[in-house]
Structures are given as C-alpha cells and as structure tokens.
From TrEMBL:
It holds the Pfam family Guanylate_cyc. This is Adenylate/guanylate cyclase domain-containing protein. SUPFAM superfamilies: Nucleotide cyclase. It comes from the Bacteria.
C-alpha cells in the first residue's frame, strides 16, 4: 500500500471532517467519512457554497492567496439537531492545483457549554441584583425602626448595646378625639391620614435634628440627642413641636378631616436600645419619656405643655405661661406672637 493510500485511510478514520476544496470551482475532490456523515454523501456537483451558504468565496480565495489560511465557524442541522463546526482552510503545499485543505472540528458541545455559562452568569447576575435589592429593602426597613448609628452597630455586631443618653429632649404628641375619628371614618382613610401627617412630622423633625422613635396609633414620640449628642436638643424639640402644630393648622384649612393635637416635652436622660428578639425595634425609656407623656396628657388642645426647667432652657425664643391648675407651663412661640 502506498503512502498516499495510507494517508487517505487515516483521514477517513479520524473523527474530524476533512475535505479538499478546489479553489477554482469550489468543488470537493476529496471528503473523508466524517465529513460525509455530517454533510451527506459525496456528489460531484456539490459546491462549497452549497454546504456553507454564509461563507464568502471571494474572502476565502483572498485569504488563501495572502496568508494561505482562513478560519470561521458554521452551524447546520444534523438529524434535527443544530451542529456547529469550526472550519479551518489551509492552502495545500507543493500542490500542482489550487487546492485548500478544509478541516472541520465539531465544537457543538463547546458552544453549548459557552451558552450554559452565559445563562448561568446571567442567572447569577440576576440573583445578585435581587439579593442586593432585598438587602436594600431590609436596610430601609431597619432604618425605619432604629437610628442609623444603632443600625450600623447592629449590622456590625448583631446587637445594639443599651446606652444612657444624657441630656436629651423628648417630644410626645397625640390627637384629641382620636377614637371618634376612628368611628367616623374607614380604617384605610385613617391610616392614610396618619401616614400623611407623620411623614410631614418626620420631615420637620429632620430639619431640627429631632428623630421619631415610635408611633402607636395616634401617639407620636420623637427625641433629640439620641443617638448623636445634640447640645441644642431642647431648642430642636421646641422648634419641631411648634411647627407640628403650625402644620396641622394649615392642613386643617384645606382638608375635610380636622386634627387637633396636644404635645408634651421634657428634658433629661433616657436609655436607648433595641428591644425584642423577633419583632425588634429601637426605643427609649426613662423618667424623661414618662415626663413628656405626662405633660402631654394634661396639655390643652393645640398647646405644648412642659415644666419650668424646659421652658427656661428655650426662653430666648419661646415664652411660657402657667397652666390654670399650676401643674405645668404652656410654651408659646414668641416670634409668632410678636
């Protein structure tokens, strides 16, 4: 057996599609068995463009003339399955005819793996985005339940250590006739009203470094000096509660539901911490909170009740007058009455 015959048998036996391409008429002088298995039995009339319609013959000839090599890929249907092959054309050396050797390697599995990797990467990216979004929602929810400093401590250490804050000022507000409002309006209307009012209170408090700690129905409690110290905590609370009442007055002028509030304020020390293990929330405790709640309970409609000590601490801007029963003082805005 000649060397040429041995080479031909080897070419027919390997799992790579091999064919010779006549660059003049793009016919196939030779095709091995694997090539025939992929592209059909040999037919003298079959041209390169018949098997690879997307292949540019002029580009092929140009590449063969300039560098003697060209690579590309092609996909085709093989028994209802899409198959992708890598095509490599090399100009035959020492050939009397203008012949290129075409080698086709099955890269279908590689393409499938690349597609799987791309899908997996997209899924990981989508899941990462979803986790990030959920993390932001959890962070936003926690920041609604505790100050940012407490949240940062909780995120780092898993707990929020109880701390004594001294001095601070506490503001406690509720609405006169809240039970009657509940009886007269649908629950959704009341919730919408409270959401609107409390959101406005939050914005006003933020202007004066006075942060809401908790709400319980019509009870709104805010504090200045927790967790970040504030030397002007009394003035911050006084400014906030005065503007709370102004906001309600203006709101009542244009809204069908009228709200009447009363406010108690006090200065002193509080303990701040997260309470609860399942439904935890940041809260403040201590006699100062109790004093603010007490002043609120005896305040008149749309007034701010406090003690003499608190009123004296903000006397530069706010005046005070004794209540009728002499148990507390009513604070007023000097600028407003001037």
């Amino acid at each position: 057996m000649s060397i040429e015959a041995i080479n031909e048998q080897l070419l027919r036996a390997i799992g790579v599609g091999v064919a010779l391409v006549d660059l003049e008429n793009l016919s196939f002088p030779f095709r091995n068995d694997t090539f025939n298995e992929w592209f059909g039995e040999p037919d003298p009339s079959t041209k390169l463009s018949d098997l690879f319609p997307d292949l540019d013959a002029q580009t092929l000839r140009a590449d063969m003339h300039s560098g003697g090599r060209m690579t590309t890929e092609a996909s085709f249907k093989l028994r209802r399955r899409t198959m992708t092959v890598a095509l490599e054309f090399n100009l035959a050396q020492n050939a009397s005819e203008n012949i290129a050797v075409l080698v086709c390697q099955n890269i279908t599995r590689i393409k499938e793996l690349e597609s799987m990797i791309d899908s997996y990467s997209m899924m990981v990216e989508r899941n990462t985005h979803e986790i990030k979004r959920e993390k932001e929602q959890v962070e936003k929810l926690l920041l609604n339940m505790m100050p940012r400093a407490a949240y940062e401590e909780y995120k780092t250490f898993g707990v929020v250590s109880p701390r004594l804050f001294d001095p601070v000022s506490v503001l406690a507000l509720d609405f006169i006739g809240f039970d009657e409002q509940l009886a007269q309006h649908e629950p959704g209307v009341i919730v919408s009203e409270l959401n609107d009012i409390y959101s406005a209170f939050d914005r006003i408090g933020a202007q004066f470094s006075c942060q809401r700690i908790r709400t319980n129905g019509d009870s709104y409690v805010a504090v200045s000096g927790v967790p970040d110290p504030n030397q002007d905590h009394a003035m911050a609370v006084a400014n906030s509660c005065v503007r709370f009442l102004r906001y309600l007055v203006r709101r009542n002028e244009s809204h069908p539901i009228q709200w009447t509030a009363r406010i108690g304020v006090a200065s002193g020390s509080v303990i701040g911490s997260v309470v609860g293990s399942q439904n935890y929330i940041y809260d403040v405790f201590g006699p100062t909170v109790g004093a603010a709640l007490h002043h609120r309970s005896i305040a008149d409609d749309m007034t701010i009740a406090t003690d003499t000590a608190f009123a004296d601490s903000v006397t530069e801007k706010f005046g005070a007058e004794a209540s009728k029963d002499g148990t507390h003082v009513l604070m007023r805005d000097l600028a407003e009455n001037a």
